[in-house]
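Weekly sync notes, structure subgroup
Attendees: PM, AL, DS (notes)

Item 1: joint prediction request from the bench team. They want all two components modeled as one assembly rather than separately. Inputs as received:
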Amino acid sequence: MNVSQPLLSLRDLSVSYGTIKALHGVSLQVPEKAIVTLIGANGAGKSTTLRAISGLLKVQGGSVVYDGREITNELPHKIVGRHLCHVPEGRMVFSNLTVAENLRMGAYLRRDKGGIAEDVDYVYGIFPRLKERWAQQAGTLSGGEQQMLAISRALMSRPRCLMLDEPSLGIAPILVRAIFDQIVAINREKGITILLVEQNANLALAISHYGYVLETGRVILEDTAAALRQNPQVREAYLGE
Amino acid sequence: MFSRSPLSLPTACQGAKRWLIAAVLCSILLSFGQFNRYYLGVAMDVGINIILAVSLNLINGYTGQFSLGHAGFMAVGAYTAAKFSLVFAVAAPEPARPVLFLVALVLGGAVAALSGLAVGIPSLRLKGDYLAIVTLGFGEIIRVIVQNLEAVGAASGLKGIPKYTTLGWTFALASVTVYVVVSLVNSTYGRGFIAVKDDEVAASSMGINPVRYKVTAFVVGAFFAGIAGGLYAHHKQFLAPTGFDFLKSIDIVVMVILGGMGRTASVALAAVVLTLLPEVLRPVSEYRMILYALLIIGLMMARPQGLFAFGRRAVK
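Output from the run, pasted for the record:
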């Protein structure tokens, strides 16, 4: 891994919800083409970190640098235009639109018809279920299918970096497997950098290259995923051993 | 199974909606073949209400905001157009009048759109009930201003407005409204309205600017409400501030809800039904409004998804 010039780096990021401080100076680096994971308990600040990067939350201190440019506190829809795409927690699909229309919305900022059609074929290829249900309203899909759609929709914006927030949350284990296999495939085949937030630390560390452990808004540990899996502290607190 | 490409918009459904609307409009026109003055008046009310309901549906139905200020936008358009006509059109030679009428209507729409912008921007941080209250306040402010403005007749109303509104004008503009709203929402750009309604966070993480969509909905909605106001002014020939109180806004909201939020054809149909219903009930005189209210409650209980909401949107 080339760590000299990370695609995304956070320096000393702090974020508050009203008077409550949620992030106390989080710094982390995501190298290009890597899968980096943030693990931690509920309320550790994992989702907050992603929301701050994508501009959904106001950053009070520190900076977000993406592709050599500072993007701290830019508007969310501007950040997407930089090919940094966030898949928010809770499978937020457009429930009144069909599967195909949802995908089309993902390509909202693109004008290259040929490329869009190509990418639709690609996501139907990795998630055949979506192809079967292309005309169905997204609100009628199962949880796992909605997650597939949310990821696919994000892919439609041709991201260089994809931020996934809890993709396994509330999904049948068999579908979780399929989704994680495809996350790895997206990373390998398309070279898309992935920043993954996941409560299921076992699963996350199994597919990641590098990991950060967050606790009450601070990074308390960072290492390669393999090393974190061997770390006794991590094993006890997060891997349930 | 894949008769259309998975990516194509549901064009078939779009076509069906337009035909449905055209059919309704034609049948209304035909049924008023005698052109009795009373029927003619009711038919124009129907057309004006279609414009109001369809334009409000863009704000409340598609974009998922809750505006109670539609009568306010209508009032702005009505008074602007009426004042313009009284100053310019009345003195103008006969052949110039249709042109001046169009100018009056568009001017009314434009001023209403500006007020839509004025309400839309500060209201962006508000949702649901809170937005409803702000727009309600806006409507009342407009009414109070008009009530105290001598230039537009203040509390005694604006009299002597020339009768320029015809059935042709009304339904031509109703068709324009339906056409604009339907093609706006069915475009790729327009799917953004529904996306913003479904989930703002997800919409902005797709590169959609929710702020722009919400303001656009308000501006376009207000524009057509203003047009409806101009038609109304040149139809009734008299404007009273009390005609634009919040009960008028509620009437329009009821049309949108009863029709089925976010379905243009159904909302237009509901506007037709709800305008005709009180007229049909005239024979029962004093029980008329009680019966009207009971019918609305009954219809809502029988079809909570909307009176004419058949099947799911856009799916074959």
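Discussion: The mean pLDDT of chain A is 90.
Action: AL to compare against the crosslinking data before next sync.
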